[in-house]
Amino acid sequence: MTLIADAVAALGLTLPPASAPVATYVSTVRSGALLYVSGQIPMADGQPACLGRIGDGLSAADGLRAAQAAALGVLAQVAAATDGRVASVRQVVKLGVFVACTPDFTGQPQVANGASDLMVAVFGDAGRHTRAAVGVAALPRGVAVEVDAVFELEAGQ
Amino acid sequence: MTLIADAVAALGLTLPPASAPVATYVSTVRSGALLYVSGQIPMADGQPACLGRIGDGLSAADGLRAAQAAALGVLAQVAAATDGRVASVRQVVKLGVFVACTPDFTGQPQVANGASDLMVAVFGDAGRHTRAAVGVAALPRGVAVEVDAVFELEAGQ
Amino acid sequence: MTLIADAVAALGLTLPPASAPVATYVSTVRSGALLYVSGQIPMADGQPACLGRIGDGLSAADGLRAAQAAALGVLAQVAAATDGRVASVRQVVKLGVFVACTPDFTGQPQVANGASDLMVAVFGDAGRHTRAAVGVAALPRGVAVEVDAVFELEAGQ
User: Fold this and answer.
1) Is the pLDDT of residue B129 over 90?
2) CB of C136 within 8 Å of any CB in chain A?
3) Residue A1 pLDDT > 90, yes or no?
């Protein structure tokens, strides 16, 4: 009966509040067994965090932390859309990891591992997902990483 | 029994013709209850419109109009793949909004609202979707915005 | 009972080995009838291939070959996740084609046709998919194209 918030805390991290969209879209939509999660950005104290581009002042290690922070936002949305238990997630299906970077940065996989490793740390084998990691020109509010996701939930969620 | 085309017209807009892909892909694929829609670009009189990059001659407001135009293309494809009624759409599940922009532009959410607001204006609560908005280097034929989508349809569609 | 590998060989191409992710994500996840495939990059002799950016030393034709190579990687993953038969795929649902390019390159559709045409050549009508083709700043390990995918499989796969 482990909660996602507790599993995150056991890693020495903190599940942030599920951020509210500031527009007409929503954070999650359920369709059949799938839960789609809107792109999440790193947040700290309610403000966008991890600002900048990888390769232009930010390192790959900075990017990994940004990806982890964005993935914590994904987990917060999943927890808010379910009863919050780790066991409510049958499988993390897909992560899209968008990395704001210079044209010569090629370490998107290392950056994306900040999100991927968190999923496996929280959900175990059910956290092993597909992903696409790409380097983009710019991201909302100047953050370094955005992560969107598709989860498969247990029946009853 | 409102038609998507009529709901769009009531907003003072015009549903464009569903554009035909110029290659071996298709505009929509149905899988179970889900309708996947290929990335659509703004079109006017059968030609790509809203050309350029946001932050380099185009403003965020230009981008919002480009996102609305691309989203009209999405609606045209959904109408063509169904009986065209608003009620055929159970839920707009996901929009991917790709914004061609300079590396210092961070207003992708405002741009993407041009697509998001249209969905809610046409479908009401069923139009409230998840989305990812990212800034990319360049888009097909030089347009400023591309939008792809996943819809959930009513049974029988 | 045609195998995907044989259909690829009949085109004068070679199905590469299914590459193993070098991190905590996985190459494919099955959810219901859908098979999600992680972003694949062009590989040759086990190494990333087709390096560079379109518009900066690489041509659209180079990009088309890179997209074909990345799509061969997608097919290798699908073959490894199923019994390998062409008939195991009910429909190619969606391709995401990410093209590393300069801001002034607008031929993403021509590049993406390298992936799209391969799907139709192997699967026929079942290969006719939706797609989004976008130009990005940079891709993992410096490759020119990355392709991710969603397939619908036949029951029993």
Assistant:
1) yes
2) yes
3) no
A103 in contact with C, Cβ within 8 Å = yes
CB-nearest to C129 from B29, B138, B139 is: B29
Is C88 a member of any domain? yes
User: In the structure, what pLDDT confidence band is assigned to residue B1 with cuts at 50, 70 and 90?
Assistant: confident
CB count in 10 Å sphere of residue A46? 9
Site of tokens 């020495």: A12
Write the pLDDT tens digit of every residue in C16-67.
Answer: 999 988 788 999 999 999 999 999 999 999 999 999 999 999 999 999 999 9
Query: Would residue B156 count as lying in a domain?
Result: no
> Closest chain A residue to C23 measured between Cα atoms?
A113
ipTM here: 0.97
Q: Best mutation site among A25, A77, A150 for testing chain B: the one with the most B CBs within 10 Å?
A: A25
Q: Tell me which chain B residues have a C-beta less than 8 angstroms from the C-beta of C155.
A: none
Residues of C within 8 A of A100 (CB-CB) are 137
Q: Chain A residues with CB inside 8 Å of B133's CB?
A: 39, 140
pLDDT 10s digits, A27-59: 999 999 999 999 999 999 999 999 999 999 999
Domain membership flag for residue A21: no
Domain range for residue A127?
Answer: 4-16+26-151
Record: contact A96-B132, CB cut-off 8 A:
yes
Task: Count up the domains in chain A and report the number.
Answer: 1
List the single residue in A with minimal CA-CA distance to B154: A31
Are B25 and C116 in contact (CB < 8 Å)? yes
* Buried/exposed B61-72: b ≥16 CB within 10 Å, e otherwise: ebbbbbbbbbbb
pTM of the model: 0.98
Is residue C156 a part of any domain in this protein? Answer: no
| CA C20 – CA A128 distance, rounded (Å) | 13
Q: Is A92 exposed, middle or buried (0-12, 13-18, 19+ CB in 10 A)?
A: buried
Using an 8 Å CB-CB cutoff, list chain A residues near B100: 137
CATH number at residue C78: 3.30.1330.40
Confidence of residue A157 (pLDDT cuts 50, 70, 90): confident
The 10s digit of each residue's pLDDT in C78-92 is: 999 999 999 999 999
